[in-house]
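User: Structure tokens for both sequences below?

Assistant:
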Amino acid sequence: MPDANLLGTEGKGFVHLMEHLPLERISIAVAAIAAARAAYEWTREYVFERKAFGKPVGDLQNTRFVLAEMLTEIEVTQSHIDRCVLALNAGELTAVDAAKAKWWASELQKRVVDRCVQLHGGYGFMMEYPIGRAFVDSRVQTLYGGTTEVMKEIIGRDIAARPA
């Protein structure tokens, strides 16, 4: 292979890959929180259009509680991700902080989308609705870029390496 085709330094491919993992993981976290927010918005609109027991599903206390929980978790997670993006841009995002953001945001996406499917009822499982497609799409977020368990191992190793 010609030297012109070499990317990076010969023999350092794994090192180069590892150097870019924080960027990959924060990118996954950003996509996860955006998807969670989109699912929440579709659902918020839907529950105030859909009627059960003679009134919009969104007027039921349980539905309002679920919406409140999801919105709070989304906003708190968004703040953390925003901080991580600023750290990335400053060249200060650690692999551990990227792992935390990726783990939390991808698992949050999965939880939020699952709750949204529940609030959509049977329509939530139909691929004709965006929420049905989001349900299928959300599952892979906790896998690529490193599984949730790998993220926890990275974080755990960092905790174990610090003096008490």
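Moving on to the next sequence.
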Amino acid sequence: MDSDLNPQGWIWWPEREDLSLEFMRLLASAQEGGATFSECWLTASRIDFADDYSWYREWTATAEVNRERASSAAAQGHPATARDNWLRAMNYYLTAAHPVDLAPDERRSAIASMRECAANYLNCRQPRGEVVSIPWLNEFTLQGYYLPASLGGDRAPVVICIGEPGHHKEEFLFKLARHASERGMALLAVDVLGDGTGPSFEEVSLRHKPQRAIAPIMDYLVGRDDVDERRIAILADGWRSSFVARGIAFDHRFAAAVCDGGIWDLHMRAFLDPQNRPFGVEPCPELEADRILRGIRCPLLVAASERGVLRADRIAELTDRLRAGRRDRDITFEIFEAAEAAAGQGRFDNPTLANEFIFDWIASRIGAQPLYNRA
């Protein structure tokens, strides 16, 4: 299958939009250490789209080359090279697992290998990171990666980085961890996919709402002796639900939040509910979203993309409605425009540009300082 450029300048396989977007995510991750451009292009050149397993096979092969290189570097006492290669191997395994029609056995194998590479990366990092388990439900335990801010035992500010349901926390290790570390913050990367030993998230979500996972995550951090519980921020990566906004609306322990503030709920309710539904049958969208926003007491950043699922003017309209009558609240609205990149859904086309702004905003709200600037 031939590739081409779409009108927005992305590489495009016309018959596989899902894989086109995944390939662009992978290319963008190269600037954060999650891939190399040459390996991406070389691997893509070997893929035969007439073969259903070619995508999985080729990205797995590239991942294993990086994994072997990492193991060799670690054995020879070269931790920096080992770390870099484990990060890339982890990301290539994630790409291998991407196709929606991939067989379950292959997907499980790729995800298991990805998690092994992540654990090896944490062990080789300075300061060393941890694989942590966070109790949530009796049959479902959350898994996270905790990256300390420094080697010392001082209590540090922390940012929780959590992805939308279906998104893997491993991506945060190259996409977000550097930005937190350079600003003197510890990072907890977590997702709602579980540790892989119990039921699937899809099974659990039928009975439990994902926003209920936010409080146990905060409970875990507050219980650590190296965390400053007054300086904990949360960053919701992705923008297809308001579950983080709902989760923090009635948990007032957060010092700052980067999420949609309930805008997605406001949009979906307005889209799905007939305009003339009698009052009282269901909460009207404005009241429901207003309830969420009124519950969020900490400083809030709403960071969206011009080419995201919601149009920029629609997001601006909804944000203005949420901010009406609350001029005393610390609510920042930022749109990443196409002229500067970072304008795709989830800012996948240029995560660096967006993350610099986002983490500077977080640092300014929770008083985080670069380690080399401290007295």
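User: Anything stand out in the second?

Assistant: The chain has two domains: 7-124, 127-375.
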